[in-house]
Inverse folding.
């Protein structure tokens, strides 16, 4: 337990020293897959709390009663896995040195600022008036931008790329994520049509012969 807490605490070091941080994460075993999965779990909790408890001023579209916990968890896990799979698929072809485990760990730790800043912001939104709207969104965008920069840094360090190749790879990863989403939607649409056709055929035969 103490070891896991120490590994979670390492996220603070990595936030301020990303290059050394990701190197030590991979080569010096300063982090762990367990700690990374805990961070992802905390992000799922944050997403649920964000939907349910963000102040109305900053969350006007939510009615306060229609929370779907599974949907919120799926948003976080789906996006995270999509990034990791696209990352691994592309960097494998582009001579990246990071394994899938390295990618999962680095990506999870890179999301630490989004949680550390974003989670308290959920509760602060309930006591911040509309006059503080710019301050609220400033902190929100800092958390997003900080995590995004750490994500890019993780690609650079984990795969031992140059800066130019890192930027290119990051863009390609985002494109690959969009392609994967398109293919999944296409696949489920075809499955849905096939199920609809089989169901219709079944009822047609049932009506004619039974």
């Amino acid at each position: 337990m103490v070891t896991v807490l120490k590994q979670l605490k390492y996220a603070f070091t990595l936030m301020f020293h990303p290059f050394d941080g990701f190197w030590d994460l991979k080569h010096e075993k300063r982090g762990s897959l367990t700690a990374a999965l805990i961070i992802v779990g905390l992000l799922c909790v944050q997403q649920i709390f964000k939907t349910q408890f963000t102040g109305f001023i900053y969350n006007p579209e939510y009615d306060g009663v229609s929370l779907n916990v599974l949907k919120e968890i799926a948003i976080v896990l789906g996006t995270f896995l999509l990034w990791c799979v696209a990352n691994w698929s592309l960097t494998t072809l582009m001579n990246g040195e990071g394994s899938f485990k390295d990618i999962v760990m680095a990506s999870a730790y890179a999301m630490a600022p989004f949680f550390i800043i974003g989670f308290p912001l959920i509760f602060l939104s309930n006591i911040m008036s509309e006059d503080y709207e710019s301050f609220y969104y400033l902190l929100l965008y800092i958390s997003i931008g900080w995590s995004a920069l750490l994500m890019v840094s993780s690609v650079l360090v984990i795969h031992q790329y140059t800066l130019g190749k890192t930027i290119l790879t990051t863009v390609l990863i985002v494109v690959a994520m969009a392609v994967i989403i398109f293919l999944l939607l296409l696949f489920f649409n075809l499955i849905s049509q096939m199920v609809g056709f089989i169901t219709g055929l079944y009822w047609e035969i049932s009506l004619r012969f039974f």
